[in-house]
What does this fold into?
Amino acid sequence: MTAVTNDVPAVPATVTDARKAGSGLMIACIVVLCVWVLLPIYLLLVNALSSPAEVTSFPKRIIPSFDFGSLSFFLNFQGVGKALWNSVAVALLTMVLSIGIGAPAGYALSRFDFPGKEAFRFLVLMTRAFPLPLLALPLAVLFIRTGLDDTAFGLAIVHTTLSLPFAVLITFSLFSGIPVELEEAAWTLGCNRWQAFRKVVLPLALPGIAASAVFAFTISWNEVFAAAVLTIENRTLTAFLLQSINVSPLYLKFAGGAALVVPALIFIFAVRRYLFAMWGIANR
Amino acid sequence: MRKLLKLVAGAAFVTALCSGAAAAQALFWSTQAKPVEEAQKMRDIVLKGFPGGVDYQPSDDGPWLTRLQAEIQAGKGTIAVLGALHGSFSSMSGDLVDLSDIKLGDVHVNDQYRQLAKLGTSEQKYLPWMQATYIMAANKKALEFLPQGADINALTYDQLIEWAKNIADKTGSPKFGFPAGPEGLKHRFFQGFLLPSYTKSMVTKFRSPEAEAGWGKFKELWQYTNPASTTYAFMQQPLLSEEVWVAFDHVARLADAFNQKPADFVAFPVPAGPAGRGFMPVIAGIGIPKTAPDTQKSKELVAWMMKPETQIATLRATNFFPVVDVKLPDDMPNSVKVSGPAIAAQTGAKDAVPALLPTGLGNLGGKFNQIYNDTFERIILGGQDIRPALDEQAKALKALIDQAKAPCWQPDPVSQGACPVD
It folds into this structure.
């Protein structure tokens, strides 16, 4: 290391240039990424808030005319409120179930050695290998016979199966990232196994667990086929609307799209703190 | 965070408890009237007066069939009444309640359709519910470009091509429109219009020289077709925005154009080819699965759907026409007034070749449509030679028909066993 005198610039000019260029590139990337994510949502909302005539016309307006005709059609559409509530209920149940089952499995995978561990990791992924339309028929028969048919809980079990691989694998890498020495230190200081987990590991893992919970929520929220077959009276919003929307006029497609997207956005916005915190862990 | 988790778990638990309670409305499980506005009208207008209430649930063919099969296998069901196209019923003959004893009063149902709904048995497997077809629509601005001597009510494919060419040449851009988007019903055009008009067949003469000629003509027409056609699902939109001046589509998918600007559009029959004026009548039916929770109630609902006033309400809601003898009131929507005469001219045409929707294919119906769409994509969009493309697609078609063991349906002549593909 050489000492730097006061009359010489601390950093040679080429380096500042490169740094400027670097930050310019960074800003450009950020802008592109933001546009990538925000533009479709923006277009969706603009069209949802426009009158039917404006949706089919061109060029588009930048600021919507705030015509609530299409949206209020959906709000008044018989059963939308109930379907929305069912969707939320199933998604929340899926979230609780997949974390309740997935997190312990992820912890076991990262902390313990047991025979068949590799096979288990592989098998967990296998549940995604079967297309749902294939599984839906035997599932529906079973559900009708056992009385699980047409309940939020029954559908949540199916959605949990779909989201479980992700819950297990995300929490597995999460727990693996927390040094086992921390736990051991807690044991030496008088914690038993459960206390060490609850007081040391859990606070560190919580943001990541929340993230995988959000993932489970969106998987359940977006699923159509099983929901359409396994629920009748208690339809979820996707089962209720999605099949109708894709054959509806354009302005209703936009309004319906907004009705499907906005609740999910609000949910993710509400839990964003935990999502960002997880990325904090990943950077460490 | 723990508070949030507790809250979430609590909410989910309460929901799991609450979701057990169910209403006792009759469930109408349908593949028809799916668009949200139509479903809304079915609930608010058509079914509103039925005592006890009806839960009208439209769904895609896949979930519709899966759910039904599940209920039949489980031997216990919630579906009270099924609404679907003729082809969907034909594969489930054994699982439907006989409707011969249903009391319809003095309502007279179309005899031909009623016979069809017996599915070749002595029992009334379902009752015809409503009917529709596909027609042509044109902006009145296009009429001046009609070829000399052409009668719009008796066009041929050659005249249609010339007309589309005239419009493209005079206005500078192609203005024929065709629903070739992913949700468009283009396969029905090939199955029920193009091929029957050239071959008087949908399946058997799939790769005949006549079929080759038909595809050649369509290729010609495609030159004067708006290239955005590959995104269209409902032709009413591009007609209204004047992207397209002449279009082919299902009557229900043209209705908005006629309703919004009745003075701007005309409806007319589909063109004819050398073998006749091929067209596809669409017949939807209502049936009762053997697992229905209350067969008596279901029969009452079926009888309700057949009443003339319900049939008229259904026409208003869905743009599907009645199947019973009924005098239409004067205040029908413009779409009915505009398309009605065109449909009558088409079905009553001397050279008419009615081609029924595919039957007996069961859950292979989607693959059957895919073969026609693939042929379209290869020949028209991919620009492949017609002969080899037809030969290869014919192999796929033969394999599929053999797998389904489906006998021929109109306009192909009756077959022993699976319908042959020559």
Q: What stands out?
A: Residues 15 and 246 of chain A are 54 Å apart (CA to CA). Chain A has two domains: 13-67, 70-283. The first helix of chain A runs from residue 13 to 48.
